[in-house]
Amino acid sequence: MTALDQTAQWKALQAHWEEISDVHMRDLFGGDPERFEQMSLQTCGILLDYSKNRITRDSVRKLLDLANGADVVGWIRRMFSGDRLNNTEGRAVLHVALRNRSNQPIWVDGQDIMPAVNRILEKMESFTNAVRGGGWTGFTGKTITDVVNIGIGGSNLGPLMVVDALKPYCAEGPRSHFVSNVDPNHIEDTLKRLDPETSLFIVSSKTFTTQETLANAHAARNWLLQALGQETAVARHFVAVSTNAEAVQKFGINLDNMFEIWDWVGGRFSLWSAIGLPIALAIGMDKFYELLDGAHEMDRHFAETDQLSENMPVILALLGVWYVNFVGARTHAVLPYDQHLRYLPAYLQQADMESNGKRVTRHGYPVDYATGPVVWGAAGTDGQHAFYQLIHQGTQLVPCDFIAPVSSHSSLGDQHRILLANFIAQSEALMTGRPAEEARAELEASGLPPTAALDLLPHKVFPGNRPSNSILLDRLTPRRLGALIALYEHKIFVQGIIWRVNSFDQWGVELGKQLADVVLGELTGTIEPGDHDGSTRELVKYCRNHFRG
Ligand code: G6Q
Description:
Blueprint (H helix, E strand, L loop, with lengths): L7 H13 L4 H6 L4 H4 L1 E4 L2 E4 L7 H13 L2 H9 L14 H4 L8 E2 L2 E2 L1 H20 L12 E5 L6 H9 L9 E5 L4 H9 L6 E6 L6 H18 L5 H4 E5 L2 H7 L6 E3 L16 H7 L1 H20 L7 H16 L3 E6 L7 H13 L17 E4 L10 H6 L6 E8 L5 H20 L3 H10 L4 H11 L7 E8 L2 H22 L7 H18 L9 H13 L3
Parallel strand pairs: 5-6, 5-7, 7-8, 8-9, 10-11, 10-12, 12-13
Antiparallel strand pairs: 1-2, 2-13, 3-4
Helix pairs in contact: 1-4, 4-15, 8-13, 8-16, 13-14, 14-21, 15-21, 16-21, 19-20, 22-23
Glucose-6-phosphate (G6Q) binds next to loops.
């Protein structure tokens, strides 16, 4: 197989960037009145405007050649039909089955997995209805008022992000809390606000071996037992989401109260499974189904739009590849203009960086090209008053995704327009910039003495030509959010295909889990400090000598 960076499609893109790297987007817009029409897509209630990118129509054609050369359509088919795409763990990749609302069979090892998916959804539904309706009570007979999800990484970020995003739909549900960090302050601060008689804990861990989650779950269990006195209370206040029935039982959770997940659900793609139980409890099962419906709608768009120029996740993926591999960008900013999407950058950071932060191909050969960028961001407009300075005038090119709902759930519609105005104005300013003549005219008009104006001039110039996508949802509903998340999941998948990496394993995360176990033994004194480098050895020693429990 030809190395990726030796393929004709890759070389054509390299040469193409050489040709257009000096072209300013202002001129591209000036020369093409139809640029927006040509470079925007609409599907699933989402508008993607990608016209403010440093591309021409020819760039798009060449990027599509790259996608076709990588057989993106074939790989999409393989994912949806349950092939073991996660080759290093020998697993299928089927988060799309979790929201397969068509209920068409999906086969893994000759078995249709849809009945199992539906069975767990039904179990979630009856549990959710019981808790929200007061039929499921705590040990002392009181209604559940607070739900605490204990989990980390993929067993935390998705539910946390979605529950916050759908706050306007949470009014009738119990209050939600999320504990992830092994820092004891996280669980302690949360427990301080709770009443044991009315609290329900979801211990959410695919493996049920994760140190952080088990430590927090044991702390919560002890707190509950101290207050309620009896072991039997655990069954009314703890449920689990896991693949590991044995460990769940060992922890003391009744298997009737375990919600099963499967090894073909990757942690960072699992919010659609029982890992989404805190979401269902917060917004109700009907709205949870709407979230799945939205994701399924995007799945169908992705799987059925073989004309890749119309396929929104594919276009988003190709733009990312363009900046990382041909333009030289190293980061990608996610900038939601919606307070309820404040956790989206962190969520996408995990989804993207854990998936495509890889240095070898799926067959183990080192790559000769850059793969996943650093993904970061924060809710606008806070970011504008913090890090946008670098995006506007710094030395790094930072491609940005601006994301906003056109209409808000808030009754302060006028204030939402202010937010939208900022959303639109920022991408415009990044693109057009402010040339020296304009900056000079403004300084002259301000009445500054000419020499002072001249000194200030370089600081007032904005080069512009800084790229962004604008993504608009009509409103942040469960359905639209489902589609938005699925859009990014598929974008990440397509990029992994192009970069030839396995987007579905995470050996870097596994390493962290092993290392901490060794050092913990050394810190507690159960094992002698091992063969470490000078720094690590001294850090262990320092903590051992200074620890005051
Ligand atoms: C996600 C990763 C990782 C995982 C956590 C928690 O794709 O695999 O973030 O979700 O390490 O793992 P458990 O669910 O097994 O506790």
